[in-house]
UniProtKB/TrEMBL annotation:
Name used for this protein in its record: Methylthioribose kinase
Binding site for substrate: 229, 345
Membership in a protein family: Belongs to the methylthioribose kinase family.
Pathway where this protein functions: Amino-acid biosynthesis; L-methionine biosynthesis via salvage pathway; S-methyl-5-thio-alpha-D-ribose 1-phosphate from S-methyl-5'-thioadenosine (hydrolase route): step 2/2
Binding-site residues for ATP, renumbered to this chain: 40, 57, 246-248
GO biological process: L-methionine salvage from methylthioadenosine
Organism expressing this protein natively: Paenibacillus xerothermodurans
Pfam families associated with the record: APH
């Protein structure tokens, strides 16, 4: 058995060659390390003679974004490959296929999606994806319903909760999303121009209470198997296809955390529009598209989730009159709150977003940061009162006016 070490490109090629039925044993293969995320090595292996290609993703024993001083469990590679396989069993067209997982090397062999782009990049180029709302709402409804106590035998679900205990990756979220942005933490990366707004957040006790409530639910509410990091950098997209990747943060938590992550990242792009187009009409138009997408996703998610519940619900008590409406309302409220937390952490926390940070004009960047903080904090403060998705769109409109 090969003991763990970070693969070189030559070793990645040798490993790819050893996988049965993928490449001819003597064929020419080339490898490029293309990982641009915060945590892993990603090798793109291709066979020029046939055009065939695969991805080898290897977890590093530390967080690449910080360096070797931040050790990180390799078990996240197992979690990721097992979550991908569950997602594939529930919505096979919306995730990459996993061919193999090598535990010792923390290495997953999966479908190459280079014909797609990372959605964050696509949104920064202001592309539109007409099928995205249908795709992501179907992914969310199926992945969340069938792994919850509504769609699954409750004892089997508990076994699955055990399988996805993910303490180290959850700790990253507990700190970077639900703690550090609300105090003067060393991990923060505060843009000097908005120090006043950030200090306001550090001193806002009403806000801290709402964040503590959301953090409590993240810590304790094992509602469904979450992707756990469903931002637009975890989505590969093209006009007719969407693929959800990278579920290494997967664990059982509150459904609204995943839905909120998608909305937060659409809204961060919404906030950044003044940095990406000088034309008032065109950015207003793209902002309307982003808000319409948020509404479309929620509406479709709710419809699909209710329909799965009505057709395939396994729990007698969940059929009690009024329970489904109450449940969906709680998910919506969580979605508001987590969307807000996920916006705030991307402005002055450790890991930020290119939608904002790559804006060249300093005043447009500052405006994007301020809009994101304004909208993020208002979503958090409003979350326990939210009744319809339209309120999210209204808060977004208010933040830019
Ligand atoms: C140390 S990891 C920083 C961030 O990158 C991941 O994508 C997660 O969002 C995490 O919080
Ligand atoms: Mg990731």
């Amino acid at each position: 058995m090969t003991s763990y070490h970070a693969l070189t490109e030559a070793e990645a090629i040798a490993y790819a060659r050893s996988i049965p039925n993928l490449f001819a044993p003597d064929s020419e293969l080339s490898s490029r390390e293309i990982g641009d995320g915060n945590l892993n090595l990603v090798f793109h292996i291709s066979e020029p003679s046939t055009g065939r290609s695969i991805i080898l993703k290897q977890a590093l024993p530390y967080a690449k974004v910080v360096g070797e001083s931040w050790p990180l469990t390799l078990d996240r590679a197992r979690i990721e490959s097992e979550a991908l396989m569950i997602h594939e069993s529930l919505c096979s067209d919306l995730v990459p296929h996993v061919w193999a997982f090598e535990k010792e090397l923390a290495l997953t062999v999966m479908q190459d999606l280079s014909d797609h782009v990372i959605m964050r990049k696509g949104l920064m180029e202001r592309n539109r994806y007409p099928l995205f709302a249908e795709h992501i709402s179907r992914f969310l409804a199926n992945a969340l319903f069938y792994t919850s106590d509504l769609g699954r035998n409750q004892q089997e679900k508990k076994e699955s909760v055990k399988q996805f205990i993910n303490p180290e990756l959850c700790k990253i979220t507990e700190d970077l999303i639900f703690d550090d942005p609300y105090r003067n933490a060393d991990t923060n990366n505060v843009p000097p121009a908005i120090m006043d707004a950030v200090e306001h957040i550090w001193n806002d006790k009403e806000l801290h209470l709402e964040v503590a409530i959301l953090r409590n639910s993240f810590l304790t509410n094992a509602q469904a198997l979450l992707h756990g990091d469903l931002h637009t950098g975890s989505i590969f997209i093209k006009q007719d296809s969407t693929k959800v990747i990278d579920p290494e943060f997967a664990f059982y938590g509150p459904m609204g955390f995943d839905i909120g992550a998608v909305f937060a990242n659409l809204l961060l792009n919404f906030a950044a529009q003044e940095g990406w187009s000088a034309d008032v009409h065109s950015r207003a138009d793209y902002r309307s598209y982003l808000l319409a997408t948020v509404k479309d996703i929620w509406t479709r998610f709710e419809g699909e989730f209710r329909s799965l519940w009505n057709r395939y619900g396994v729990d007698r008590m969940s059929k009690t009159d009024g329970y489904q409406d109450w449940y969906i309302q709680q998910v919506l409220r969580d979605t508001f709150g987590y969307a807000g937390c996920k916006m705030v952490r991307r402005v002055h926390g450790l890991a930020q977003v290119a939608d904002i940070n790559q804006i060249e004009d300093e005043s447009a960047k500052e405006r994007a940061q301020r809009i994101s903080l304004q909208l993020g904090t208002s979503l958090i403060k409003h979350h326990r009162r939210a009744v319809t998705i339209d309120e999210m769109l209204e808060l977004a409109d208010k933040a830019i006016n």
